[in-house]
């Protein structure tokens, strides 16, 4: 009798730790959530699963901020980010967050050590669907070569109790697939935005 109660208690406690307690998903939990469909990610790679995060990779759509504040959209496999340059980039991975999960995107130390600052505006709310847009600034002294498919950041997945109103109801960037620019109106006029498609922009001036 006591053994049965103990086993039931351990089972309930295990279920609580796995699905309901707060905290970030570790590698085996992330794999289980993906297999059970509790988390869906298009274009993710099994080898990208790290002990406490998932490596995310650069896509081929970028929005480079020009000197006048406008943006030039680039569809390219690689280009050079010069010191001081700022660019919006998109991940190859496309995320579907449920009401009991949210994400935090962080830079990778290897990139940080050569001066690349990665900012994702941090938080991906419960209910968010879309590719992740990251903001990249070269704070180093040397140009950096960015390539389509390179690991650029890491997503940490956090459990939470189900939200009352998810990002689906109020999010400005829901369903984004490209390097989406800000929705805010109090920024410089962006009519100079243009699309440039080239195979290689390594020698871009």
- The counted number of beta strands is 13
What would CATH call the class?
A: Mainly Beta
Structurally, how many domains make up the residues?
1
The amount of helix comes to 10-25%
CATH topology: Deoxyuridine 5'-Triphosphate Nucleotidohydrolase, Chain A
On the 0 to 100 scale, the average pLDDT is 84
What's the gyration radius in Å? 20 Å
Order of helices and strands: HEHEEEEEEHEEEEEHE
List low-confidence stretches. Answer: 198-205
| Helix run count | 4
CA-CA gap between termini: 77 Å
* Residue share in β-strands: 35-45%
| Main sheet properties | 11 strands, mixed
CATH architecture assignment: Distorted Sandwich
Query: In the CATH hierarchy, what is the superfamily?
Result: Deoxyuridine triphosphatase (dUTPase)
């Amino acid at each position: 009798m006591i053994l049965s109660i103990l086993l039931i208690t351990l089972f309930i406690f295990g279920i609580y730790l796995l699905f309901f307690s707060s905290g970030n998903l570790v590698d085996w939990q992330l794999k289980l959530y993906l297999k059970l469909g509790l988390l869906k990610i298009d274009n993710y790679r099994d080898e990208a699963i790290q002990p406490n995060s998932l490596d995310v990779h650069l896509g081929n759509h970028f929005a480079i901020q020009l000197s006048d504040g406008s943006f030039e959209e680039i569809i390219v496999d690689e280009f050079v980010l010069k010191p001081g340059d700022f660019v919006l980039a998109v991940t190859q991975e496309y995320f579907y967050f449920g009401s009991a999960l949210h994400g935090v995107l962080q830079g990778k130390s290897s990139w940080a050590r050569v001066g690349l600052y990665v900012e994702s505006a941090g938080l991906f709310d419960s209910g968010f669907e879309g590719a992740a847009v990251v903001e990249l600034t070269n704070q180093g002294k040397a140009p950096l070569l960015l390539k389509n498919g390179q690991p650029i950041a890491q997503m940490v997945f956090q459990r939470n109790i189900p939200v009352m109103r998810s990002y689906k109801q109020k999010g400005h960037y829901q369903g984004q697939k490209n390097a989406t620019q800000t929705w805010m109106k109090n920024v410089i006029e962006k009519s100079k935005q243009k699309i440039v498609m080239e195979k290689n922009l390594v020698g871009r001036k």
